[in-house]
Specification:
The structure is a homodimer of 353-residue chains. Chain A is built from 14 helices and 13 strands. By secondary structure, the first copy, chain A, is α/β, with parallel strands linked by helices.
Chain lengths: 353, 353
Amino acid sequence: MPQKVRIALDAMGGDVGASVVVPGAAISLTRHPGIEFLLFGDHALIDPQLEKHPALKAVSRVVHTDVAVSMHDKPSQALRRGRKTSSMWLAIDAVKKGEADVAVSAGNTGALMAMARFNLRMLRGIDRPAIAAVWPTIRGDSVVLDLGATIGGDAHHLMALAVMGSAMASVLFDLERPTVGLLNIGVEEVKGGEEIRAAAELLRAMNLPQLEYIGFVEGDGIGKGAADVIVTEGFSGNIALKAAEGTARQISEYLRSAIARTWRSRIGYLFARGAFKALRDKMDPSKSNGGVLLGLNGIVVKSHGGTDAEGFAYAVDVGYEMVHYDLLTKINQMLDGGGSALAQAPNAQEAVS
Amino acid sequence: MPQKVRIALDAMGGDVGASVVVPGAAISLTRHPGIEFLLFGDHALIDPQLEKHPALKAVSRVVHTDVAVSMHDKPSQALRRGRKTSSMWLAIDAVKKGEADVAVSAGNTGALMAMARFNLRMLRGIDRPAIAAVWPTIRGDSVVLDLGATIGGDAHHLMALAVMGSAMASVLFDLERPTVGLLNIGVEEVKGGEEIRAAAELLRAMNLPQLEYIGFVEGDGIGKGAADVIVTEGFSGNIALKAAEGTARQISEYLRSAIARTWRSRIGYLFARGAFKALRDKMDPSKSNGGVLLGLNGIVVKSHGGTDAEGFAYAVDVGYEMVHYDLLTKINQMLDGGGSALAQAPNAQEAVS
């Protein structure tokens, strides 16, 4: 484990770029004083922001580029235009060259995956990348993956997700043998498509020492904390995540308007302010910001494109923790342990073409 | 439109059966005095319940059977064991024979679909059934389908869902040309699998007079009310629904514990009780109970298996409304209008085998 955690930032990524990335990094630095930053992007945009955060400036080095991947570029366009020159590429490349331990970007997801895959290459036995994130549940936190990197995938792909997700859960939550559930539309054995049923059989038959397969979990099981790791292909994982986020926002909205309706409820709000603050903190989607790209020879963290500095700071925190707890080594150990089950190539389709 | 709405009930369906179904019907009857009920199931279980609800008893006829489909039967088992004899089959058969206008069951979803399909047959041009439900959003209600009847499906299947969902939205919400969105993992044209992109092209190219296609909608767009009709294949639809329900339950839980934490917040709660009641009403999942099986020559409504009488009453309400507003005629009109796009057979896989 390195003394200092060195984080490469795509300072041009996201809807706003440097004016969110730089203050976000500053917030994360207050929580993890052991970080050193490498910022890739336009000096003219980064420097004025850094001036406002002297502590950050003291541990940062800026590498200038004025090439940025647009949020609307197709992955193929991004690779063509931004390879070797864009802030996103350079941040990933710093990981490749060993100049940074992790790259964090709020840029275009498809482009980030394509560049990461092209430059870092996949781990042995893994064919397609996945995005994993921590999902707050009633019972604590769970790791959910894939949140949108790869659409579809056969039993071996789901198996690889189970192994990588378990590695992440075991380092993050300090678990010997995390429980793993497969997301499905019912808990009975006959439910779901062929791939899921085959993955269930495989997980049960292999009975890996690194994870405990507990069966199918339905969509409402995620929030119940039914398993430490919830595995699904990227389409349904993304839909689940966003449906949950949308519902949380919808309920905040209802709560706000219910409270504002009468003077009695407004008085009640004043008394219960602490409770509402606790609730808001629990529901704050920016706190679950930071998806980890798994399956690569290197760690890359994807932040929401539309997040604010507070949210970006959480993505930087995630990057810090992945390095601090040495996720990559753990995944490699697990893959070696998982062995031949992952040798066969999965049959999946990338999320974007 | 019939004077009286005649509803066939599978009185043995669901986790509890008659002790939820009968009081549920009684609640719905108070809201829709024009209902007549046909109850299928065990006299010994139904009659004592009916005695408690004289108004319901006065408009009900009980048809005895002691054969019930179990919640754990595979569809094929249910068909083999329960065909022509089970309460579920008989309720559907009443629709087939014209003795009832709609059948409502809280029984095993796979069995209900298999029996409905076997007995009622699919509408011309529709190959696989779908389950649609009303989803409360910030902007009002939307129709979301498929919630788990059919896994996967090509562009023509998604197109059929769009047409049927629009028919349902137009009768329920009194809209001339409901807006339709395809659920996807991004709004850009390049996102999602081939089928979805092909469906988008088809919907745009056909520019049907009965619906306005507005593009891709992400998971968090459902709760925002991004479109009157949200279309997706059954796996992701089911996951979205349950992830949203799970999140709502999780937030209720947080709110409850936040309120209970301090005396100040408990006092606040007393003042704001009305607001909390309004919120609970909004979030009450039983109010969205009642999935409509679409694509069949007849109307069948599926209630949650684990619902209470209040929840079952909402499913009966849904059945009432579908008949009252003549959904089936509207769907048939739309399918005739939709024409040749639906003539090709979709390429889908049933949710359960």
